[in-house]
Design goal:
Blueprint lengths: L1 E6 L3 H13 L2 E6 L2 H10 L4 E5 L7 H9 L4 H4 L3 E5 L4 H9 L4 E4 L4 H17 L29 H13 L6
Parallel strand pairs: 1-2, 1-3, 3-4, 4-5
Helix pairs in contact: 2-3
InterPro entries: Bact_response_regulator, CheY-like_superfamily, Sig_transdc_resp-reg_receiver
Keywords: Phosphoprotein
Pfam family, one: Response_reg
């Protein structure tokens, strides 16, 4: 059975993902922040990670940066699905810059979720895992990125967080 780590500060979201992953024959371990997720990854890397972009105690961007910059290829090549309550062109660009496997909007849609997992499994079967080191190897046909005018702009906090990680690296230790 494959193992997934799901990180979100919202308990309801973690439990929903645990249920969906169970239906897809994954064992899903849930975490409320990036720091505890990172510690678990270092102890025993999963097959897949899902992380909310903004969380207390270690953001999803910190987690993604730590994963992509790790020296161990098994960790560096983990598929990482980023999720966010705000998905616009700028959030998509930030997730792409950080080499997310995919970006999904919250609230999560079960059909999109299953589509992404199926695509990840197909990539894993036909290619080496190094495909997951590149940005957005998984495209979601049904995902519509909102126009900036249709949604509020990226929060200044998220913009500062992304800039800090790009300039100084992840706050999570390797």
């Amino acid at each position: 059975m494959r193992v997934c780590f799901a990180a979100d500060d919202l308990r309801a979201s973690r439990e929903m993902m645990r249920t969906w992953f169970s239906m897809l024959d994954y064992e899903c371990k849930t975490f409320s922040g990036g720091t505890d997720t990172w510690e678990a990854i270092l102890e025993s890397p999963p097959d897949l990670v899902v992380a909310d972009i903004e969380m207390p105690r270690g953001s999803g961007l910190d987690l993604l940066s730590a994963i992509r910059n790790h020296s161990d290829v098994q960790i560096r090549t983990l598929p990482v699905i980023m999720i966010s309550g705000l998905v616009d062109a700028e959030i998509a660009r930030i997730a792409e810059d950080f080499k997310a496997t995919c970006l999904l909007p919250k609230p999560l849609d079960m059909k999109q979720f299953e589509e992404v997992i199926d695509q990840i499994e197909s990539q894993r079967e036909w290619r080496s895992n190094t495909v997951f080191e590149s940005a957005f190897p998984i495209q979601v046909a049904t995902l519509k990125i909102a126009r900036p005018s249709a949604m509020p702009a990226v929060s200044p906090k998220l913009r500062r967080m992304a800039r800090r990680i790009q300039e100084s690296g992840s706050q999570l230790s390797p």
